[in-house]
Design brief:
Length: about 130
């Protein structure tokens, strides 16, 4: 069963062209946020995208607010992983897997409620390369 398209797609142009550029220099220093670094699947160019990140043991979970068809998700899947810059450290991530969770069970309650309003039901899980 395909996941429904999230209600956030209209925000994507603003996020990509304005918000990400403004917050990219400092967002990795904000608790709960990181910069995901990954290569383009065709160009090989390195991209740096601000992300809200959640932990589940040694795994890192990302809510796919624009769905699994977003370019950054396709790039990470094609590369087989990514790197997260959290503060001054970098964490290598591997084994990316998209999963569907209509209950948003891995999210904290306030986030779960917010994602429900947005219609977000897809997530990406990656594990630390160290584990």
């Amino acid at each position: 069963m395909a996941a429904p398209r999230p209600r956030t797609l209209f925000l994507r142009p603003f996020a990509v062209h304005v918000f990400n550029r403004v917050v990219r220099p400092f967002v990795h220093r904000v608790p709960g946020f990181a910069i995901m670094i990954y290569p383009g699947r065709r160009s090989g160019r390195l991209y740096r995208t601000p992300m809200k990140v959640f932990r589940d043991g040694d795994d890192y979970i990302f809510a796919l607010t624009y769905g699994s068809f977003a370019h950054w998700v396709k790039n990470v899947l094609a590369a087989g992983g990514a790197e997260l810059q959290i503060g001054n450290r970098r964490v290598a991530l591997t084994d990316p897997r998209v999963f569907f969770d209509p209950k948003r069970s891995l999210m904290p309650l306030p986030v779960r409620l917010f994602l429900r309003v947005l219609g977000v039901t897809e997530f990406l899980r990656m594990r630390s390369a160290r584990s």
